[in-house]
Amino acid sequence: MKQILLPTDFSDNSWNAISYAVHLFKGDECTFHVFNAYTPTIYKVDYALEYPSEYGYIDKAEDESKEELDKLLAKISKVKTKSSKHTFKTYARFESISSLISEFLKSLEIDLIVMGTQGATGAKEVLFGSTTVHVLKSVKCPVLAIPSNFSYENPHEILFPTDLNVSFNSSQLSILKEIVTHHHARLNAMHVSSGYELSNSQKQNQQLLEDIFKHSAYLFHNIKTMSVTEAINEFQIKNKTNLLVMINNKHSFFQNIFFKNTITQIGFHLKIPFLVIPTLT
C-alpha cells in the first residue's frame, strides 16, 4: 500500500494537488496522510508558551484546522474517481511544514509528497521560497508539485531531462516506473549535450536507464545547440507533455537548473506537474 503525504493550507491550489493525487492513484491501494501545519493568526511566543489557555490562540487555531480538515474529507468523498482502495488520515499540528514533513518521513514509510505550487496568498514565492527549497534539498522522498489551476490529465507523455551523471537503479525510480506502467505512458529521457561526447560512465548510466524502462514506451532524445531550459521549454511546445521529472542531483544538473537563475524560467512558468526524485546518496 502506497503512503502519500498531502500538505494542505486549505487553498484552492492545495485542493488541486490533493485532487490530482486521488486521480493519479485511483487504481492503487493508498493511504493519504493529509496534514495542516497551522499557525495562529495572532500569536506571541512568550504569551502562548506561558499562558496558552488564557489566550487560547493555539487551541482556537487547532480547532479551526481540524474543522477545515473535516470539511476537506467531505469534499474528497465527492470526487468521482475516489476509490474504495483509498484511506485518508488527517493531522492538525502547530508546527512548521518542513519540520512536520521530516517527522512524517521518520515515522512513516512515505512514498511520495504531493503539494501545490502556491499557497493561500497566491504568491509565486510560495513554491520556491525557503520552505519548499528546504524540502526539495533535504528530504529523501520524491516530491510532486502541481501547478495552480492545472486540470488533471493522465500522464501519457513524460519528459525526463538528465545529465546522465546519476547511476540509476529501479529503487530510486520506482515511483516513476509505476506511473509510467499504470498510465501506459511514454518516457522521454532527454540529454542536452554540452559539446562533448558522453563519457563512459554516462554511457553506462544511459544503458541502465534504458534497461529499467525496457518494458515501457521509452525514447531517448539527445539535444544539442541549446540550454537545458530552452530544450525543456521547446519540447513542451512541440509535444503534449503531461509531467516533468528531474533527479535532485545536488552536485551538478539539478542544483544548477533548479536553485539558480533558471528557476524563474522553468519553475514560475511551468504549467505541468513536476516530479522531483532525490538521489539515494
Q: What's the short story on this structure?
A:
The chain is of the alpha/beta class and 281 residues long. It folds into two domains: 2-146, HUPs (Rossmann fold), CATH 3.40.50; 157-278, HUPs (Rossmann fold). 39% of the residues lie in helices and 22% in strands.
**Radius of gyration computed on alpha carbons:** 20 Å
Characterize the overall form.
elongated
Strand order of the largest sheet: 3-2-1-4-5-10-9-6-7-8
Q: Could you name the CATH class of the largest domain?
A: Alpha Beta
Which band does the percent of strand residues land in?
A: 15-25%
CATH topology of the largest domain: Rossmann fold
What is the number of domains? 2
CATH superfamily of the largest domain: HUPs
Largest sheet properties: 10 strands, mixed
Stretches where pLDDT falls below 50 for ≥5 residues?
A: 122-129, 261-265
Helical stretch tally: 12
Q: Average pLDDT value?
A: 82
Helix content: 25-40%
Secondary structure: number of strands: 10
Structural account:
The chain has 12 helices and 10 strands. The protein is an alpha/beta fold and 281 residues long. The chain has 2 domains: 2-146, Rossmann fold; 157-278, Rossmann fold, CATH 3.40.50. A 10-stranded mixed β-sheet has the order 3-2-1-4-5-10-9-6-7-8, sandwiched between helices. Helix 1 links the parallel strand 1 (2-7) and strand 2 (30-37). The protein is elongated. The model is unreliable at 122-129 and 261-265 (pLDDT under 50). It comes from Psychroflexus lacisalsi. Residues 1-147 form the UspA domain.
What labels describe this entry?
281 residues; alpha/beta; Rossmann fold; 2 domains; 10-stranded mixed beta sheet; 12 helices; 10 strands; 39% helix; 22% strand; elongated
